[in-house]
Amino acid sequence: MLDLRALAVALPAVKTPPECADFSKTVAPYLPQLYPLPQNIFAHINDWEALQHIYLSTNPLVTALAFALFVTPIVLLVAELNRNYSQVDRLWSVLPVIYNCHYALWAHLAGIPTQRLDHVMAVTALWGARLTFNYWRKGGYNVGSEDYRWETVKKYVGPLGMFVFDVVFISLAQNMLLFMITAPTYILLLCSRLTGDGLGAYDHFFSKAIFLLVLLEFFADQQQWDYHRAKEQYRRTAKVPKEYNFTREQLDRGFNTSGLWAWSRHPNFAAEQGVWMCLYQWCCCESWTYMNWCFVGALSYLILFQSSTWLTELLSASKYAEYKVYKQRVGKFLPKRITKSMNAPKVEVKGNAEEKTKGARDTETAGKTKRR
């Protein structure tokens, strides 16, 4: 356990919940610890007790920030050497888990009440396990695999632009984002010093809400996985697979519009954003603040998903003829006030002759396929 003098060096002496979310008291005074940290670690690299003392006498938020800055040049170097820009993608499900486990571990070693942080660590580990598994089964960890969207970006910005984009956004900004979305856990750590080891209503509500959102992501991922496996088998055999509950029309469409995907065009993305917004709201409620500095991470996460989804849908609309109809009928993240099934008759866009012609061609093609 850390002695009180070292604890005073590592954590602010907060007296009220709102002070736990005060950037000027809980973050700014500890940023100077970042500068000598690498030198101190390398100077005692073979001394386990000294390293443990450095770890416990350094503000846990600063330690997490230092790790994020350490990872940034590594992923940049690997990306540029391999001309593969999915290096952060491979760490996306891992780094937030590391940060939240770090906060919980630090609290355990420092003798701070940890029941709340253990709940955060548990639901984050479930989130990471689900996302890692889904990324793995889609081949994301295969050598040479890369997100298909980066190829579009590379063609648009060129080699020099891609290098700048990699330095500024892919490697640095995304690493900082993954650090920032877990920063609310630092505020929860500070709040735990005041409230003790019991769990309150907010702890029960938000931990269960995050668990349900992770569960929603799991079902959305599984439905998407089943659809694409069925589509692959259908294209290979020209027969509708009996083991999957999809019609020929759904498989001919090329993209999933059933299950959760009948109500949201991106139910997994919606739940993903909800997970980290819940963690942010959790720290707001515990610190008695309507808004605090962690809002930067939560808002940036929402903005990233807006831009990423925009590019995803742009490519989907160019690939699938009916995707524009899907966008009209089904909400992007949340269900529309009036969500219309893709199994209903198509509504033609007024004054758009090209859509009418395309719809006729699609109907004729579908008819030929059925006759075959």
From TrEMBL:
Keywords: Membrane, Transmembrane, Transmembrane helix. It comes from the Eukaryota. Residues 345-372 are annotated as: Disordered. The keyword Transmembrane helix applies. Residues 347-372 have a biased composition (Basic and acidic residues). The chain crosses the membrane at residues 61-79, 91-113, 157-181. InterPro entries: UstE-like (IPR010721). One of its GO terms (cellular component) is membrane. This is DUF1295-domain-containing protein. The lineage of its organism: Eukaryota, Fungi, Dikarya, Ascomycota, Pezizomycotina.
